[in-house]
Design a protein that fits this description.
Layout (H helix, E strand, L loop, with lengths): L1 E8 L3 H13 L3 H5 L1 E9 L3 H4 L9 E2 L3 H4 L4 E6 L7 H10 L3 E4 L2 H17 L4 E2 L11 H7 L5 E7 L2 H13 L3 H10 L8 H4 L2 H15 L9 E2 L7 H9 L2 E12 L2 E12 L11 E8 L3 E8 L3 H21 L22 E11 L4 H11 L4 E10 L2 E8 L2 E2 H12 L4 E10 L3
Parallel strand pairs: 1-2, 1-4, 2-3, 4-5, 5-6, 8-10, 10-17
Antiparallel strand pairs: 7-9, 7-11, 9-10, 11-12, 13-15, 13-16, 13-17, 14-15
Helix pairs in contact: 1-13, 5-6, 6-11, 8-9, 14-15
The protein binds NADP nicotinamide-adenine-dinucleotide phosphate (NAP) and L-homoserine.
């Protein structure tokens, strides 16, 4: 019976989860993978802080050299996060002939190509199932199980914090700030929630999924991101009245004009499967020419769900080590497709604004939209207060460029006192 020695880099939320899951799996490992995974070293910054989390404190080290120079360690599990030193450590581990499992979406979304090329050069595995949607299997399905498809669409709710916030705003009528405070109190939102609420975290996940789904490299810089900070309880209420829910969606589409990669709030029909994905849950919806529609649902973050994905990767690598076939599946980006500019995407839009309540106002607004090729699907006057009226417009599917042009004109019109919200609407 083989002992496969591994090292963990980091013992925070995910690292501790990996430690616990490996312990819970210990008895079954020989039958499951024909080997026992032994944690030989854990890299931490502060040993004292980590001592209580492990059975044997002698595994703790603050010195990377103890890991990189140990030929017995065959797998490095990077769960420190951030760009550096994680990037350097992963490259050094691959160069030293070690396999790597990582949960680091920031790194994979920015430098995936370079890291996968290094893994290929050294014929080692670099797996990152945990980097997208935590416990939900999505990297392996896209890369392997769905390889017999031309995938055209990957759409998902891939950030648990923002989904929790929007769910609370929907079910309890909370405003954004109140729901964010609740998410922080319950431990969903990080101390600095910027990456979640501004859509950057979801953007990194979209870049990774799009690269794999469309076999063409998409980096985080290619992804348009817009967060949820401007969504109000009123927008959510009006959306509901019209049969929609508001979700922060990650959208990746392979179109004849190039790849669309974007993250933004979207009104989706309340009957759509993604509308029922609530609280901190994630879901990814995929369309392929052979499989048709497929949906993946579950916990997108957290100690044990994320560790579940990491340990799955570690077991896969262990099986490959035993069969002497590491590095079998590397980078699958063999195309070089263009990225579509955001101005060129087509969408329907929800527009809420405060206007002067007098004759000719509606006619002026519709004429600006019409002059910019924006066709109106619905226009509703919601409420009147003193001499102001609230108008809601839903457009047909139009080019973003045309919609932005009309917004620019409307922003300069004295009869329009405030453009309160602009939200994209799902569907053609
Ligand atoms: P975390 O709780 O902040 O843990 C990171 C750990 O790494 C901390 O214990 C930190 O030590 C340690 N660390 C950081 N830099 C180090 C260094 N240079 N040397 C040694 N140790 C170092 O973060 P996490 O939530 O576990 O996330 C880890 C990774 O998983 C990130 O890439 C994250 O994006 C990804 N991920 C997280 C989740 C989730 O639900 N949390 C889900 C999916 C993916 P200190 O405590 O001393 O700072
Ligand atoms: N912060 C992320 C979320 C989890 O809220 O979904 C880590 O990917």
């Amino acid at each position: 019976m083989e002992n496969i020695k591994i090292a963990l880099l980091g013992l925070g939320t995910v690292g501790t989860g990996v430690y616990k899951v490996l312990k819970a799996q210990k008895a079954e490992m020989p039958d499951k993978i024909g080997a026992e995974i032994v944690i030989k070293k854990i890299l931490v910054r502060n040993k004292e802080k980590a001592v209580a989390k492990v059975d044997d404190p002698s595994v703790l080290t603050t010195d990377w050299q103890e890991i990189i120079q140990d030929p017995e360690i065959q797998i490095v599990v990077e769960v420190m996060g951030g760009m550096e030193p994680a990037r350097t450590y992963i490259l050094e581990a691959l160069e030293a002939g070690k396999n790597v499992a990582t949960a680091n979406k920031d790194l994979i979304a920015a430098d995936g190509r370079e890291l996968l090329d290094a893994a290929h050069a050294h014929q080692k595995d670099l797996l990152f199932e945990a980097a997208v949607a935590g416990g939900i299997p999505i990297i392996r399905p896209l890369k392997q199980c769905l390889a017999g498809n031309h995938l055209s669409e990957v759409i998902g709710i891939v950030n648990g914090t923002t989904n929790f916030i929007l769910s609370k705003m929907t079910s309890e009528g909370m405003e954004f700030a109140e729901a964010l405070a609740m998410a922080t109190e319950l431990g969903y939102a990080e101390a600095d929630p910027t990456a979640d609420i501004e859509g950057y975290d979801a953007g990194r996940k979209v870049a990774i999924m799009a690269s794999i789904a469309f076999n063409s490299r998409v980096t985080f810089e290619d992804v348009y991101t817009e967060g949820i900070t401007k969504i109000s309880a009123k927008d959510i209420r009006y959306a509901k009245e019209m049969g929609y829910d508001i979700k922060l969606l990650g959208v990746a589409k392979n179109t004849p004009e190039g790849i669309e990669a974007r993250v933004h709030p979207m009104m989706i029909p309340s009957t759509h499967a993604l509308a029922s994905v609530n609280d901190s849950f994630n879901a990814v919806f995929v369309h392929g020419d052979a499989v048709d529609d497929a949906m993946f649902y579950g916990r997108g973050a957290g100690e044990l769900p994320t560790a579940s994905a990491i340990v799955g990767d570690v077991f896969d690598i262990a099986r490959n080590i035993r069969m002497n076939c590491c590095g079998r599946i590397g980078c699958t980006c063999y195309k070089d497709l263009p990225i579509k500019k955001m101005e060129d995407i087509k969408s329907r839009y929800f527009l809420r604004m405060q206007v002067e309540d007098r004759y000719g106002v509606l006619a002026s607004i519709t004429s600006v939209l019409g002059n910019n090729c924006v066709s109106i699907a619905q226009i509703i006057q919601k409420a009147k207060k003193q001499d102001l009226a609230e108008i809601v417009v839903i457009t047909d599917s139009v080019r973003e460029r045309h919609f932005r042009d009309s917004l620019k004109v409307m922003e300069g019109m004295s009869i329009i006192k405030k453009i309160s919200s602009v939200i994209r609407v799902y569907g053609d």
